[in-house]
Amino acid sequence: MLIIEHPQDRRARRTQDAIIAAAVSLILEKGAEAVTIRDITERADYNRGTFYLHFPGKPELLQFILDDFMQGVGQAYASPYAKLKEVDMTALLPSTMPVFEYIEAHQDIFRALMTMHGDMGTRLCNMFRTYLTEDFVLVTEDSDYTINYDIMLSYLVSATVGVIMHWAEIGFKYSSHYMGEQLTALINIKPTRLLIEPGQKGRTIHERMLQD
């Protein structure tokens, strides 16, 4: 069935996006607690009446920002598999680039959410784990080890989200394309040896960081 978006719906979403952009910029400047509806409407160049047409209040706006972002990441993750039956996991996964590209395009929102929710990594892990549990079955290569499926899911999801969170923590220093390639390589390349640097034994991580 063809769904035709009404022009009024597009205008409403543009207004919402402007309000969200104003709120996000203010959150990054002074924190969510300090931001008022008046601050947001002045930054977005709308009156309070327009704000209340779209959001009952500030808590609802902040919840909408979180829900909308998570839904966007979820769609970026799941939609590439809609018509697929099987995927080679040794190559670039269909979802890898869309997820990194979505987060890169909404990096200010992600950064703002990280300041408001210290558990953003956990939220992403739970979402990815739900998709993998409900919609996918992972097939492993033959191994002498007995692999616990749930632990394997936890490992893969935690690794993926860990890379995403590190990317955010370093200010999105690298492009989404580079991060997608790196994640693919990390999943497929296993470290084979651990080298101990001379003179490093017995020193704490804190001491090493101070010297560096």
From TrEMBL:
- InterPro entries, sorted: Homeodomain-like_sf, HTH-type_Tx_Regulator, HTH_TetR, TetR_C_Firmicutes
Superkingdom, natural source: Bacteria
Would you tell me the protein name for this molecule? HTH tetR-type domain-containing protein
Q: Which residues form the HTH tetR-type domain?
A: 13-73
Q: Which residues bind DNA?
A: 36-55
Q: Its Gene Ontology molecular function terms? A: DNA binding
Family matches, as SUPFAM superfamilies: Homeodomain-like (SSF46689)
Which PANTHER family does the record cross-reference, listed alphabetically? ACREF/ENVCD OPERON REPRESSOR-RELATED, TETR-FAMILY TRANSCRIPTIONAL REGULATOR
Could you tell me the keywords of this UniProt record? DNA-binding
* Residue stretches spanning the membrane: none
